[in-house]
Amino acid sequence: MMQCPNCRSKDIGKIGSQQYYCWNCFIELSILGDEWTVHQVEADGSLSSLDDIFTAEERKIQ
């Protein structure tokens, strides 16, 4: 089962092809290979990458 790399919640919903949303910490996740790419949704609807605050191991899909 997928787990959010930020809060470790399993409350993740699918919002598109290979795109997910964590309903616990409100971040958007995309799958790239076997890793998450993590984005924060800004007030204007744009996305800011959060990949730099997670190690590759933390972003690995388990």
Could you characterize the architecture of this molecule?
It is a single chain. The chain has one helix at 56-59; strands at residues 12-16, 19-22, 27-32, 35-41, 47-49. The protein has 62 residues and is mainly beta. It has one domain. Strands 1-2-3-4-5 form a five-stranded antiparallel β-sheet. The longest helix has 4 residues, at 56-59. It is globular. The mean pLDDT is 91. It comes from Tigheibacillus halophilus. This is Zn-ribbon containing protein.
Features:
6% helix; 62 residues; five-stranded antiparallel β-sheet; globular; mainly beta
Query: Please, how many helices?
Result: 1
How many distinct folded domains? 1
Overall geometry comes to globular
> What oligomeric arrangement do these chains adopt?
single chain
Instruction: Tell me the structural class.
Output: mainly beta
Strand order of the largest sheet: 1-2-3-4-5
Protein name: Zn-ribbon containing protein
Organism: Tigheibacillus halophilus
Describe this structure in a few short sentences.
This protein is mostly beta strands. The protein has one helix spanning 56-59; strands at residues 12-16, 19-22, 27-32, 35-41, 47-49.
Write the layout of secondary structure elements.
Blueprint (H helix, E strand, L loop, with lengths): L11 E5 L2 E4 L4 E6 L2 E7 L5 E3 L6 H4 L3
Antiparallel strand pairs: 1-2, 2-3, 3-4, 4-5
